[in-house]
Design a protein that fits this description.
By secondary structure, this protein is of the alpha/beta class. Helices cover about 30% and strands about 25% of the residues. Hypoxanthine (HPA) binds near residues 113, 115 and 209.
């Protein structure tokens, strides 16, 4: 992976954040942007101000890094991510992960809004991601490899860190929530799927579908960052309910359920 663009972005950000070194990165999905409102925010850096940084363009996604101190831990939060369907190359969509690596993160929590393929998953549920299927998007790791950062042929047999995932599961149990876990598949988007595509994904072993996260998880794992992920199920996937899929509906459910996810994320940070 060519890190030169991310290196320039990270240098720019460091000029603002000085000696604030984040240990944990969090990428907030659709509708979850407000989770750290009212927290002890030390710095805010708009993506648009960082030369060479891709900009988030989707409604419901802001575009900025928050540098937050929470319960004695330094965190960098991404309010809004960069999606492949916005027209960026897959390598560009993972520049933010590379930048957070260069800023110092050792662990990354990925969150997203997703459609439930597994019939057990209903709108409003949270699913902990235990594995993913990346084959429906290009790999972000193609191109020249910089051996200083990672291997040419990285192992992907355990992308989602077992310790972090167990920590997430324990938080669910402690809050009397049933723990749902599963496999997430990323599509290129920007369209939602057809019912036949969803049937295919179910046969392939996918539990939830969305348009992000996998490329970021692969990159973070390649860079040696410990990864974990949660999907907020905003709808049953295509063909599993009568209602047509809409971004407005996805956002509505994400907004309603973000309080629940906010509690989990904060407890997760405390327990790291
Ligand atoms: N499909 C793809 N992406 C999504 C969905 C879906 O059903 N819901 C939220 N993001």
């Amino acid at each position: 992976m060519d890190m030169s663009r991310a290196e320039k972005c990270a240098e720019f950000v460091k000029k603002i954040t000085g000696d604030f070194v984040p240990e944990i990165g969090i990428i907030l999905g659709s509708g979850m942007g407000g989770i750290f409102n009212g927290a002890d925010i030390k710095y805010i850096v708009d993506y648009a101000d960082i030369p060479g940084f891709p900009k988030a363009t989707v409604e419901g996604h802001q575009g900025r890094f928050l540098f937050v101190e929470y319960k004695g831990k330094n965190i960098v939060v991404m309010q809004g991510r960069v999606h492949y369907y916005e027209g960026y190359s897959i390598q560009e969509t993972v520049i933010p992960v590379c930048v957070m690596k260069l800023l110092g993160i050792e662990a990354l929590l990925l969150t997203n809004a997703a459609g439930g393929i597994n019939k057990e998953l209903d709108a409003g549920d949270i699913m902990i991601i235990t594995d993913h299927i990346s084959m429906f998007i290009p790999s972000p790791l193609t191109g020249r490899n910089d051996e200083r950062y990672g291997e040419r042929f990285p192992d992907m047999s355990c992308v989602y860190n077992i310790h972090l995932t167990e920590t997430l599961k324990n938080i669910f149990t402690r809050n009397n929530l049933e723990v749902k876990t599963g496999v997430y598949v990323q599509t290129a988007g920007s369209n939602y799927e057809t019912p036949s595509e969803i049937r295919m994904f179910r046969i392939l072993g996918c539990d939830a579908v969305g348009m992000s996260t996998v490329c970021e998880a692969m990159t973070a794992h390649y860079l040696g960052i410990k990864v974990c992920g949660i999907s907020l199920i905003t709808n049953k996937a295509a063909g599993l309910s009568q209602a047509p899929l809409s971004h407005t509906e996805v956002r509505k459910i994400a907004d309603i359920s973000s309080a629940k996810i906010s509690v989990m994320i904060k407890q997760f940070i405390e327990n790291l």
